[in-house]
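for the writeup, i need someone to sanity check this before i put it in the appendix. the sequnce is what the collaborator sent (i think, or maybe the updated version? ugh). structure was predicted straight from it, no edits. if anything looks off just tell me and ill rerun, i have time this weekend
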Amino acid sequence: MVFSWKQEVVVASEEQDVPLNAVRAFVTIARERSVTGAAAALGTTQSSISRHLAVLEDYLGASLFERRGRSSDLSDYGRLFANAVTESLDTICFTARRMRRRNTADVNRLIVRTSLSTFATHVLIPHLSEFSKEMGGATVDVVTSLAMPSASDRFDVLVTRDLHIAEPGDHWEIYREQLICVGSPTHLKSKGLASIRSIPILSTTSRPDILPTWLRGMDMTVNDIVGGARVDHHYLALPAAMTGKCLLVAPEIVVAQCLQDGFLKAVSGTRTPSGMHYRAYALDRSSNPELARAFCRWLARLCRGMSSGETP
């Protein structure tokens, strides 16, 4: 009977829930190297951290720290346990923060973040009213940033060409970039392809890849063109191309509206793919996940329509 009773106690002990708060406190102590530091990091008291540590040691049946004078170091067992659980706990916390949905009373509002400022200026923002009307008056806030998104950044949709996100979410390929050479209709007139050998071509420091990529696609070298001025971004280069005696190689979708309105003219035979893909990501942690996905689908349709427009 005694043996049977002891056996039942062991089984019950093994079935106890893992004290996860205590594990988190222990990992923080190990990282901060002190109970005081752990208490400060977790915003609680030293006595609370000590109680968590006692609970965990009781659960594990082993000491996690060895006291040496006034300091405490991880025991061999504590070091093994810390190495085993720290990375997993960090992953859980990081994933939970990324997938956390904001509580908001504004259920018809999105924050769209993009690393493509010229795309936002010439493609996205001019058409946002169409999406708003389609979705019953939805409000879209647009922010631009070249920085890699972090788990604490607030946004619902990411539109980008060069950034990637690891957090859960759906994504759409919205545009396969095509490059094209454009210039002022006044200066191009009927010169055609010959103009690229006589009129200076602007370059942009934000996209140093464009001109070399376009030249390779055209089977040309820098010796075949006249180098022009250099500006930071395409949104600065576009007015120069519209009004000055110069050419610009740019993503076709960025200049599509200017071509349609007659502010720019494309040089015939200069369209070539860059190999870059534009994508839209709808984050799972968005407070409006369905609206975020609807926006990505709408943006994909918009880009398809603009890129299929008739340009020379």
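The chain has three domains: 2-99, 109-168+280-307, 177-275. The radius of gyration is 29 Å.
thx in advance!!
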